[in-house]
UniProtKB/TrEMBL annotation:
Protein name: RelA/SpoT family protein
Domain TGS: 412-474
Family according to the record: Belongs to the relA/spoT family.
PROSITE patterns associated with the record: TGS
Organism annotation: Dyadobacter endophyticus
Bilayer-spanning residue ranges: none
Amino acid sequence: MEQLVESLNIDLEQERKDILKKYRRLLRTAKPFLKDNDAKLIKKAFYTSVDAHKDMRRRSGEPYIYHPLAVAQIVVEEIGLGTTGIVAALLHDVVEDTDMGIDDIERLFGKKVAKIIDGLTKISGRFEYGSSQQAENFRKMLLTLSDDVRVILVKLADRLHNMRTLDSMPRDKQLKIASETIFIYAPLAHRLGLYSIKSELEELYLKYTEPQEYRAIARKLRETKNLRDRFISKFMEPIAQDLESAGLNFILKGRPKSIYSIWNKMRKQNKPFEEIYDLFAIRIVLESPPESDREKAICWQAYSIVTDHYKPNPDRLKDFLSTPRANGYQSLHSTVMSKSGQWVEVQIRTSRMDEIAEKGYAAHWKYKGNDTKVKGNIEQWITQVRETLENGFGDKTAAIEFLDEFRSNLFNEEVFVFTPKGELKVLQAGSTALDFAFDIHSEVGAHCMAAKVGGILVPISYVLNNGDQIEIITSSKQKPNEDWLRIVVTSKARARIKDFLKEENRRYETDGRQFVEKKLKILGMEATAEVMNQLRAFFECKTTTDFFYRIGKGYIPIDDLKRFKRDRDAKDKKAAENGAGSNAAPATGTDGKALTKYLKQIHGDRADSDTLLIGDDMDKIDYKLAQCCNPIAGDDVFGFVTINEGIKIHRTTCPNAAELMSKHGNRIIKAKWSGKDEAFLAGLYLSGTDRVGLVNDVTRIISNELHINMRGLTIDTKDGVFNGDIKLYVQDTRHLDILINKLEQVEGVYNVQRFDTNLSEK
């Protein structure tokens, strides 16, 4: 430790002053919340954390205590938690990183704090094949959420600070942490109504995964700032005058959309920055006594004033005043046409609604005396999480399945429907009549035959629309079947259907397991957990239970296990040919650590010895380019260790990257291109206005000017507009960029974009 301090030339006295300065700032921010002995308790937690982390430093070289202090500051300043949250934030890493145990925390700080810390402490030890430490840790944290939502709020603060300080981490760690953030934590922040934190997490994700695009959009936003400010000022002027004349107290805010949301829109709409028109939103925040009868009235009054000056888009009015989102968000949204012909989004809300929109769940405690409806929506969601935990996700092997189920609950949009008696029900967007039936009661769902919407008979697969009034038709003879799992989207319905099927399926699972064990014995193979998981992956089943069920049902013929053995033997033979003993490549299905160790062995003392070299290492390690994203030389990539198919190389921007890194971080390895000349299959999408000779001009550039081989060309024209797909072989991303630039200059071509799917040779 002393050597590290000397090598980094650290001023310990200055660090002590900085630590105390941060601590005093924390106390000043928390002062309005503090009661009785709260300050003493925070002081005790601070000194306990300082002592526990005294010999620890972050990767940046800073004292580790800076991190818990920063997390506590976020907890109080940006989320709005009180003393228990601050104490838990200061101590959140103590049990995981030091000798102090949960019992010690409970003795010093009480049961509530101990429970939160326990939920935040990662599980250590080895995990079985097919399980995921990341998924299991998340599931453990969610178990605590059922009792105390502060465990998630502290975790979000922890994740936010980690993302803010990601610069000091190596590139592969940056990608893993950023992917986990966008996959789980940003949607979770959204679900709890923490919009500012959600937006920052998304921005930071983009900053580290797509740095060039992030910087390009940020630069364009800076360049257009003055123009945007003038537009906003001119747009707001007549509205402000009328609001003042009406005697309303208000604040007008004009803000650009987040870089992430602009990037997302550019990607989804296939448009450049210049063609994304709704780059900013106007917010009108009105002063009103909290939960007074006037709150909704003044919002609608302000809406009337806005539409006196600007024509609204009737399809873009969203009333979250009467029907708040499940996370408690209330606001009135409208999109109006400005005098310059530009669409502008206007959000209208009161100061109470604005605070809840920014601080989410934590802000409810400030208004909890009257705010039962809004708070109740979030409590209802937490109840759903509790039900998901309690239904079929008890063992560790189910952690990944639980993670999928939980993510389906983090929906952004809801659908508002009514029972025959007029009771409002809020369900996940995309919910069906069968989801609605299970939401009413498990028995109603289990016996659901059909439904009536507006008096018209519809099937159980009918997708609900806002305002539908639904009557469920049941039959005592009806019972759930497996197809129902493809119809429903809500976790409650899925859990209930699985419960009904479980008893019937158990017999098939038992039979299937016995058949498999008997067949493996005949084939001379041992029925280990590793082999079972390889079988699961080989036959593309989600879980080993699902695999046994399919065998028991006869969906997978038992003799097909011979194919698995042949495939496995062939891979073992290839591995044996490539090396033996300590120099042999690790077996298929191993984790990333074993492969990284092997790479260091074969690469020696090189600086990048822990990295798979694509092109050079083919004769030593079995890998393939993933068909989901079709990487080409020059793309930023990583390796993913599959169960049965060796290593697959994915782009860091692959649609599946966030999920792979979030669920299976232990199976990710570093990879880069070796620089060997090779041809890679790539796809380009073109669109524009049709003319005679267009195809000839496009093919001339590809074949004659750049000497690129094409594998396929499809052009479709309709009413003077063309859309085309080209599949071709390129050397690397630079080669592809040159081609894209040349094609964009062809007369009539308006858009040229790389696409990743359906490029396989199959």
